[in-house]
Amino acid sequence: MGQRMNRRRFLWGAASAAASGVLVGRVGAGPAGADPAPPIKLPTIFHSPEMVKYVDEMSVPSTITSSPTQPIEIVARTTSTRFHRDQPRVPTMAYNDEPYLGPTVEAHVGEQTTVHYRSELAEHIFAADLDTSLHGVTERYRGQPVTSMHLHGGVTPPEFDGNPERLMLPHHGTAVFEFPNRQEAGHLWYHDHAMAITRANVYAGLAGMYFLRDGHDTGTSGNPLGLPAGEHEIPLILQEKIFRVDGHQSLRSTPVVPQGMWEGGAVGDRGLVNGKVWPTMTVDRGLYRFRLINAASFSVWNLFFSNRMPFWVIGNEGGLLNAPVRTRSFAAAPAERFDLLVDFSSLAPGETVELCNDLAPPFQAAMLGEVVMSRFCRFVAGADRGDRRPVPTTLRGGRGQPARIPPIATPQRVRHVSVSQPYELRVPPAIMSLNNLRYADPQIEKPRAGTTERWDIINITPDPHPIHLHLVMFRILGRRPLRTVAYQAANPQPPIGTRWAPDPSAFYAGPMRGPAAWEAGSKDTVHAVGGHVTSIVVRFPTADELGFDPDAIFSSDPTQSWTRPSGGHAVAPSASGQHRHAAATPVHGMVTKDLQGYVWHCHILDHEDHDMMLRYRVVS
Questions:
Q1: pTM (2 d.p.)
Q2: Which residues of the chain have pLDDT under 50?
Q3: Of 262, 314, 308, which Cα lies nearest the Cα of 288?
Q4: Would you call the peptide bond into 524 cis, given omega within 30 degrees of 0 as the criterion?
Q5: Burial grade of 569 (CB within 10 A; 0-12, 13-18, 19 or more)
């Protein structure tokens, strides 16, 4: 790696050791369902105040049903909530009338969802924590927080995709978003995506579910697939948080990093489900469908039930699997969604079972004293027998079912991309990077429309990084261990700003391991394991297939609705259906400009903010 990098690694290790004052080993899990040892109260880590588990009822977000003839409203607001019975109401950000998070949107395949979006946010609840040294962040954002609503998993025209530079100021008009929904039924979600403050906005509460239905997966009791519906289909939005002594959410995890400076991510010590800390839910003794998402900013979890009972994974982000996959646990990285069937019929009335995690934090986090967060919620068996239908044997390919998922296509091109954490002289002494580049660097990926590519995601760090591609779904081909030291010694990493993703094929440490059965469907986010090359296969669609130009140029002002083909003149539809030229001019004190394409990034939100996100274009 060179003398310079070695010195930086030494500085990071010295800084970490000085900060912790003690070297803390990894914290493992105890017996199934048992809590680990209490957190080590090191002075370098903030800890939440004590809270009693399982005293709050689990809440369920309200639902908005999309109509192709009637726009729906999504409004970002500053509000407040009580995360736990024994804590005060504290400031949050949310969509519509929810006290935290947003309503679940239900839409239908082939029917466009039109959203009228506006922001009524007051001063940012994390105003003092925003780092104005990051890309594009200004002092103005403290009092007037910008937002950019992104439909995660949506096959969406670029101007409606929630580009991180297409920013909305509070009280400055209404933006129109058009989501075609021309894709398979699946589990999407919407959340804020504003440049370099995404973590602050999402952590504050700007996220919600989006279920895309079709004639097979109707979400009603008459569902042709025989899936639980109504009160037996429940969204589970899993998060992690640290709370201050006064009960407020803490965006900070350590006093080592001064307030107002970016952190590299932190493990929470309180598990939340649907905005409540360690809630409880009374369930019928029958079958439930849980639409689960890891909506955390940082942690990967290994999820299981405390009694180790089996359950079934029936779908990923892009829709149903061919058949239910029976398992007792699965790993969920940030932004990954899992469609689950859970049968509580074996429980006696009053018997309880908890949703648990036993995956320890990454080494550097554990070294600073962060420990496994082991609990999310408790389910209590009620007296009612509930839904006693059997678990389906198949979900695709049969009569009245969607077509089977086809085999993974043969790629026409292999593209190497890298994940690294270069060091710089700052606290903390690192940034996050894809391809050894920053977001603004011009060397971007340009896959050709209509082609199928294999992306080899080369993660030279020891940490997991969930990688998300906008616009497309993909399939996981597999993961191979990498001899990272030898790889880097043979290919010294240049200073950041020079693209770096050498071919790893001469440095594999073992064979490729295919995806787990429960992650074998269509996905938009992949868990790129530390020290591995994770290979995905993705087809980049054409404009004819999409019904829109994925490479169109559009305005950075979301209140302006105009696009133009690549290399063409900017035009915008007028009320009469004619077109006018549109110019890039200052709007609301922000300079508008041309934007083009989509982004791909790590979904650890701190990493995305600095600077593990790059642009890409689908070119013709």
A1: 0.92
A2: 1-33, 569-585
A3: 314
A4: no
A5: exposed
